[in-house]
Amino acid sequence: xxxxxxxxxxxxxxxxxxxxxxxxxxxxxxxxxxxxxxxxxxxxxxxxxxxxxxxxxxxxxxxxxxxxxxxxxxxxxxxxxxxxxxxxxxxxxxxxxxxxxxxxxxxxxxxxxxxxxxxxxxxxxxxxxxxxxxxxxxxxxxxxxxxxxxxxxxxxxxxxxxxxxxxxxxxxxxxxxxxxxxxxxxxxxxxxxxxxxxxxxxxxxxxxxxx
Length: 211
Description:
Elements lengths: L1 E5 L3 H14 L4 E5 L2 H10 L3 E6 L8 H10 L6 E5 L4 H9 L4 E4 L4 H12 L22 H4 L4 H11 L4 H8 L3 H15 L4 H10 L7
Parallel strand pairs: 1-2, 1-3, 3-4, 4-5
Helix pairs in contact: 3-7, 7-9, 8-9, 9-10
């Protein structure tokens, strides 16, 4: 089984490698320290079966990267392995089509359980956060979320990280004109006239979680 680890701290990558080697008899581990390297591996290594994703990455963070991964059609289950105990952030990642969220501080047995659950087609979050999976409660940002398409949300995440239209277009594999159209739609949805105000309003509505 081939597993992709997207993590920019080499020591943690090696720790995960040891855990996965112990968990699977024939695990093949590939790793990427940033988003572009991860996307290159996903393109060249078609037999990757699982992605372990950190959030705090250079260039673009894990929140934006998972949207790009899904936008490019990759269906592999994603288990977020994060040092953040921000429940809203975990909720945001699950809504972005991650299959699990586990803390870096978790006991070894919990990490193993999370990996197995995700590989078996399930979802995993820390036990005390299980309400995240119920989907019964109204989520932050629901009122304005209905005005924003998934692609516009992708643009919003990248815009919030300071990227200009041309860079966003490259990440999302669309034209710069398309990005400009999405940015204008975001301005209209939030009733603002510039990018700074747009990001600020998105944060107020809970669409951009602070880690």
